[in-house]
Write a structure and sequence with these properties.
Elements (H helix, E strand, L loop, with lengths): L1 H4 L2 H29 L2 E4 L3 E4 L3 H6 L3 H35 L4 H9 L6 H12 L7 H8 L11 H28 L4 H9 L5 H11 L1 H16 L3 H6 L11 H11 L3 H32 L1
Antiparallel strand pairs: 1-2
Length: 294
């Protein structure tokens, strides 16, 4: 093995095809998209040079500002919910319901494999007010409360999106974090119990520090996914009412393919890419600083 890894020709032969596919499928489209930011127009009407006008427009476009605020708010709330609920579920799997955890893990994970459109249609029916009251409004009416037009207001529509996406994704993060918890050596947990660490103290002083690497990976995975949310919002609200639930991805899509401005759409995509990189680097640096203090 050392002889093979020390041979440059063998390394090129082994890694070359994978690097070629990655370059063609990932890197070239990224550079192509960055190149579009210096032009205006599309493939049908043609392109004309725009210089830095598209990038300058990002800082003055109120639609971009509104979409950016929504994206950040959605990403923070969903990431905290996904990882937090997933971690709580994983703790239950390991410490509370050991024997029946396989069946429960399967049931909680099941929404992850459902099609996004099917889940969105389910929640539309659950929260609808017309042509007939959905399950949620019917339950509120049974309690003597009035019906709410959940999708007619930006705030209520946002929370329906949050509920739907947390329901869909918490099972995935529960399984992901569960794999980190089961790797904690049992003798360490037993030693901590003998020293009197139980319940919350055991989790906060032993389990949480030892599961920090997989927890950090889950946070990075979640924040990058939520910053790039697209399908669930399109399927449930299509960015409405108005543009109240429009993230950067949907605004980029409409700018590029509905309004035919590839250059400005690529500029929005570049903003989203830089946002993902900045957030990821911030999480890495913060976690490294905490580890250094410890």
């Amino acid at each position: 093995m050392n002889h093979v890894l020390g041979d440059k020709r063998a390394i090129i032969l082994l890694l070359g095809p994978a690097l070629l596919v990655y370059t063609v499928a990932m890197l070239l489209p990224v550079f192509w998209s960055v190149g579009y930011t210096f032009f205006t127009g599309n493939a049908i009407t043609g392109f004309s040079p725009a210089g830095f006008a598209n990038l300058q427009k990002l800082f003055t476009d109120p639609a971009v500002g509104e979409a950016l605020v929504f994206t950040l708010k959605y990403a923070v709330i969903i990431t905290v919910g996904q990882v937090g609920l997933g971690y709580l579920l994983s703790l239950l799997y390991v410490f509370a319901i050991k024997k029946g955890s396989s069946l429960i893990r399967t049931l909680v994970f099941f929404p992850v494999v459902l099609p996004t459109v099917a889940v969105a249609l389910l929640f539309q029916k659950m929260f609808e007010i017309a042509p007939q009251s959905g399950v949620v409004n019917s339950a509120m009416n049974a309690l003597g409360l009035g019906s709410i037009d959940w999708f007619g207001n930006g705030t209520s529509a946002f929370w329906v999106i949050v509920i739907m996406d947390l329901w869909r994704s918490m099972g995935f993060y529960a399984v992901l974090l569960y794999t980190g918890l089961v790797d904690i050596p049992e003798d360490i947990l037993e030693s901590a119990r003998l020293d009197g660490a139980r319940g919350f103290r055991l989790i906060s002083t032993i389990v949480l520090p030892l599961s920090l690497p997989v927890l950090l990976s889950s946070i990075i995975f979640s924040i990058n996914g939520t910053l790039k949310v697209f399908d669930s919002i399109v399927a449930l609200t299509n960015g409405g009412p108005g543009s109240a639930t429009t993230p950067l991805t949907l605004h980029m899509f409409r700018t590029s393919f509905t309004y035919g401005d590839y250059g400005y759409g690529s500029s929005i995509a570049l903003l989203l890419t830089m946002l993902c990189l900045i957030v990821t680097l911030f999480i890495f640096r913060s976690s490294r600083r905490d580890l250094t203090k410890d």
